[in-house]
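Sample A.
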Amino acid sequence: MSASKLRARELITIAIFSVIFYLVMRAGALIGMIPPTFPYTSAVQLTVCGIVWVYLRTKVPKAFAVTLQCALLALVTFVGGTAWYLALSMFAGGLAAELVLAIGRYGRGWKLQAAAYAAFGLCFNFGCFGVMLLARDYYREFVLAAGMDPEYVERVLAVVSWKTFAVSSVLSIIGATAGTLLGRLLFKKHFAKVGMI
């Protein structure tokens, strides 16, 4: 990854594809509409969003591009009506991903990119589960006040536990890796161009 400053065109690319990432993530969240599948939602989202993630890494392979992307993603998510704790987890995930890349000295290998995306995914997954596990009553009151169906809320809470969180965390890593590999396959020429093979 280049450490040079982001140009205006690259900032626009990040902005556009952050919105696209958000829309794809919302589409992937539909699996969670069925309570028993809720623990697998993050893994599905990370897999399908991996294509957009990889595209941005190849089009804007620069330091702090991930942080900016996730800051915008968090903002769009919050403005779009998603819970504040999910938006916060996306921003935290961006910082975690940026840290992984920095530790790897912004190397160009796809494995480092997959590790950074997995770091984002783990933070996001915690955002999905954290409030339910640590502040269940707050979560219940928050989502009911937002108009969520009470029966659905209770059915989701019934399948959420530290065990399902652990399983979901592992699946999130797998989903992030699968998403990176899928994106790498689709954008192989771009990967080669910027040396991320």
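Sample B.
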Amino acid sequence: MMKTANRKNIHVTPLWLRVWHWVAALLFMVLVLTGIVLTYSSSEFALIDYKLATDLHDITGISLTVIYGIFLVLISVTGYWRKYARRWHGQFRRMRRQISNAARGPSLPASGIKRGQNARLWKIRPFIMTFQQFLYLTDIYILMPLLIVTGLFYLYPETAPEKVMGFAGLWPMAMAHYVAGLLGIVFILFHIYISTMGGLRHMITGRERHTLNSSH
């Protein structure tokens, strides 16, 4: 009996989530650019006009807050949150198992490696993809809310608490906003790298290729 492998495109990501993903990514990139201008500009040099950067940063931050609220509503109404819950469950256990398998597993034959990919990297690909899921869930449920909340305190400083851990209320919010922004940049860079392993097509078409084995 001979087994053959068939590939089938399976719809895995709804259109509304893909649209949200790309809009959020675009808004975040604008926030990064304008945030760099606001943080590091001087009287001698600025990438763009400081007032323009401030206006863009404020408008983009409010827009990100709005679409994040829409995202929370949609995952609740559609029940998509259950998929995120399943992904989160056992994340660390799966990553430990995948690292262990990659460390002791046999090398893949050349035929099993895509053109231009390193064999060692291909062996740890399952871990990288699972780690990407962990970072994505951390980003949308922890990092993004932190960025939004601290940004709103920045936008409306009169709402900030007077003291936080003995410091003037706005200062810890500013530091948290800065750190959240840096972590967001790291996540975006890693996210872009992961997209080279097949995630980009997935987030465009909403379909992912699966190998189905059949016997005949």
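B remarks: Residues 85 and 137 are 9 Å apart (CA to CA). The domain at 9-106+119-215 is CATH 1.20.950.20 (Fumarate Reductase Cytochrome B subunit).
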